[in-house]
């Protein structure tokens, strides 16, 4: 997938680029409004990450420009501004998602993956990982074509790990994904452990392999090896 | 004691003292004058007696004046001494005892020395003195009373601007500002008015500046926190971390999450302050609370906490986003400070939301818990949850009260009237 990262902070931009590139994406970066404007005008992308506060312009104007070109890129706004107005304006202008800084790279990646899938697969939308299948429309999980019952949170968590397969995901990122702002509760890390334990059990009971690997006690990796 | 009372008390004291002094002086002077008149009368009578005896050698017939009585009594010698004084005597002509002024002198009648005692009743005179006295004193008292009333009215009217200013200072709210200048042509109050207005403007400016600073500082911090967060995520992908590095990584994650939480809370406070969180709509608290219980299910069951609910169909008008944060904070608080196997009681009745939880056996200090960054030493929160709760209540017009009824800590919110 081809992704454009419009972010003026070089450190953040490079971290995002590294993470997304390692997922097999092709990333380009733009640090200024002008550079982004040119790239958007000249090239096509699958997804654009858009910071709203650029040194030489407002990211929302770029969004307007993009839509005026009749382009179909998915757009994720990444902003430090957690203003309801910005969010509403951004989504009304055709952005697909709105992520507030600071965010976890795994969260960003999951959101991008979800947008791209939605754009590319209009009808059936099943995400497969070996013997595990996830129907994104029906929100169901199958193992070897047999449905396994998952609670909403277990489903969310499994999908999050599959979107970020082969990546180490910290418990804090997983907790934030499930509980959002309430993730600061001290024992939310323990619940991640409990949820993962339950998911593992359900999957193995249904005959799937165990793909969860603990990473230094900090998080988990969902991978084949 | 207020200013009027103090002023009136001094004024009244001075008036009464002055009135008493003047009254006494006046009475004495009046008495003195009338006494002089009586004495003149007595002397005249004595001269008459003397003349009469001198010529006719008998005592004169009693005078026709009912107030005048002359008594004679034999004396041994004749002295030239005359005595004048006050006394009471029995007036045989009026058949009553009266106050009188008397003159005692000696005369020779038929060659015999005789004491002559002339009484002049003061009865009529006393009546006259009293009449004159009251005729003057009563109007003076009335006048004084009127003056005092006028004074009171004037003072109230003159001090009106002062009270207006005072009331505004009392009702001054830094978040609403708007001190209204008052109209007065009295210089002192004009100055006071100007001084207070300047002060309030200054306070409002400072307050705005602090808020702006908090907002900007929090915003500026978001980007560095985002960088730290993303670099940690990158670091976690490394396959060469040592075991003790991972512990450091975990701690860093926790610290960053906390930092970002503090920052978000501060920004949230600013936003609530600025009314940036959207419009009011009709809400059903019972529905929203049930959703929250679902959301917090793991946290609740992990600690074996029992949740008891008691709802009526109350609907309220409020901002959904703010109400959501409010419930989040109430739940986090009730779960965080609960004990394993504890209870949470939630009731919504007649617009009154009661949120109670078991916890420590000691009551908390109501004045402190709503302060920013105040928290229980054992708590792992950032100490902003209840401050946000209070801020939302102020903005949404809910009254908020903390209470402790063993063993429950409770918050009572008046959501609707």
Textual characterization of the structure:
Chain A is of the alpha/beta class and 225 residues long. Chain A is built from eight helices and 14 strands. Chain A has helices spanning 10-22, 33-42, 59-68, 84-92, 105-120, 152-163, 171-179, 188-205; strands at 2-6, 26-30, 47-51, 53-54, 57-58, 74-79, 97-100, 126-129, 132-135, 140-143, 146-148, 168-170, 212-215, 219-222. In chain A, the strands form four sheets. Chain A has a five-stranded parallel beta sheet, sandwiched between helices. Chain A has a four-stranded antiparallel beta sheet with strand order 8-9-10-11, with helices on one face. In chain A, helix 2 runs parallel beside helix 3. The model of chain A has no long low-confidence stretch (mean pLDDT 88). In chain B, helix 3 packs parallel to helix 4 and helix 4 runs antiparallel to helix 5 (243-273). Chain B has three domains: 3-153, no CATH class; 189-273, Helix Hairpins; 281-414, Histidine kinase-like ATPase, C-terminal domain (Heat Shock Protein 90, 2-Layer Sandwich), CATH 3.30.565.10. In chain B, the strands form three sheets. Chain B has a five-stranded mixed beta sheet. The mean pLDDT of chain B is 85. Chain B contains ten helices and eleven strands. The chains are: A alpha/beta (225), B alpha+beta (417). Chains A and B meet through helix 1, strand 12, helix 7 and helix 8 of A and helix 4, helix 5, helix 7 and helix 8 of B.
């Amino acid at each position: 997938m081809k992704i454009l990262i419009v972010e003026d902070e070089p450190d953040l931009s490079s971290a995002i680029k590294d993470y997304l590139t390692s997922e097999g994406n092709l990333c380009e970066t733009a640090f200024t409004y002008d550079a982004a404007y040119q790239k958007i005008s000249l090239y096509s992308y699958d997804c654009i990450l858009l910071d709203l506060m650029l040194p030489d312009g407002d990211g929302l104007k770029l969004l307007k420009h993009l839509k005026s070109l009749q382009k179909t890129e998915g757009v994720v706004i990444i902003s430090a501004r957690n203003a309801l107005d910005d969010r509403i304006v951004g989504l009304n202008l055709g952005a697909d998602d709105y992520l507030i800084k600071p965010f976890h790279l795994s969260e960003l990646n999951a959101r991008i993956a979800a947008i791209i899938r939605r754009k590319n697969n209009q009808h059936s939308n099943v995400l497969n990982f070996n013997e595990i299948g996830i129907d994104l429309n029906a929100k169901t999980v199958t193992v070897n074509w047999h449905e396994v019952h998952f609670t909403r949170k277990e489903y969310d968590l499994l999908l999050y790990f599959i979107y970020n397969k082969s990546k180490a995901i910290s418990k804090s990122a997983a907790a934030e994904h499930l509980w959002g702002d309430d993730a600061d509760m001290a024992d939310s890390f323990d619940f991640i452990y409990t949820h993962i334990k339950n998911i593992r059990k359900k999957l193995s009971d249904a005959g799937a392999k165990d793909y969860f690997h603990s990473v230094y006690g900090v998080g988990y990796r969902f991978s084949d090896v | 004691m207020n200013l009027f009372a103090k002023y009136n008390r001094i004024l009244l004291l001075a008036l009464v003292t002055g009135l008493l002094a003047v009254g006494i002086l006046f009475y004495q002077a009046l008495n003195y004058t009338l006494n002089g008149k009586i004495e003149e009368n007595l002397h005249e009578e004595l001269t008459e007696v003397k003349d009469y005896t001198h010529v006719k050698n008998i005592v004169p017939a009693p005078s026709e004046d009912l107030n005048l009585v002359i008594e004679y009594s034999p004396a041994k010698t004749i002295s030239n001494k005359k005595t004048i004084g006050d006394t009471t005597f029995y007036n045989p002509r009026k058949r009553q005892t009266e106050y009188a002024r008397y003159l005692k002198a000696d005369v020779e009648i038929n060659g015999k020395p005789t004491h002559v005692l002339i009484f002049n009743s003061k009865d009529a005179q006393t009546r006259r003195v009293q009449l004159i006295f009251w005729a003057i004193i009563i109007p003076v008292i009335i006048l004084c009373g009127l003056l005092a009333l006028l004074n009171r009215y004037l003072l109230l009217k003159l001090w009106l601007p002062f009270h207006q200013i005072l009331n505004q200072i009392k009702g001054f709210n830094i978040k609403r500002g708007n001190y209204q200048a008052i109209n007065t042509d009295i210089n002192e109050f004009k100055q006071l008015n100007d001084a207070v207005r300047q002060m309030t403007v200054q306070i409002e400016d400072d307050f705005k500046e602090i808020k702006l600073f908090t907002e900007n500082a929090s915003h500026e911090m978001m980007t560095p926190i985002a960088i730290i967060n993303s670099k940690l995520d990158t670091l976690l992908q490394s396959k060469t971390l040592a075991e003790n590095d991972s512990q450091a990584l975990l701690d860093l994650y926790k610290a960053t999450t906390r930092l970002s939480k503090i920052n978000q809370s501060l920004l949230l406070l600013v936003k609530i302050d600025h009314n940036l969180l959207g419009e009011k709509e009709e809400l059903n608290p019972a529905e929203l609370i049930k959703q929250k219980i679902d959301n917090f299910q793991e946290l609740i069951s992990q600690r074996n906490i029992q949740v008891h609910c008691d709802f009526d169909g109350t609907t309220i008008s409020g901002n959904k986003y703010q109400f959501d944060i409010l419930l989040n904070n109430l739940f986090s608080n009730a779960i965080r400070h609960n004990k394993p196997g504890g209870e949470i009681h939630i009731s919504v009745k007649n617009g009154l939301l009661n949120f109670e939880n078991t916890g420590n056996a000691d009551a908390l200090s109501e004045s402190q818990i709503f302060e920013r960054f105040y928290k229980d030493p054992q708590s792992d929160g950032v100490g902003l949850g209840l401050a946000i709760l209070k801020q939302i209540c102020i903005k949404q017009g809910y009254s908020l009260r903390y209470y402790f009824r063993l063993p429950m800590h409770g918050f009572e919110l008046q959501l609707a009237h």
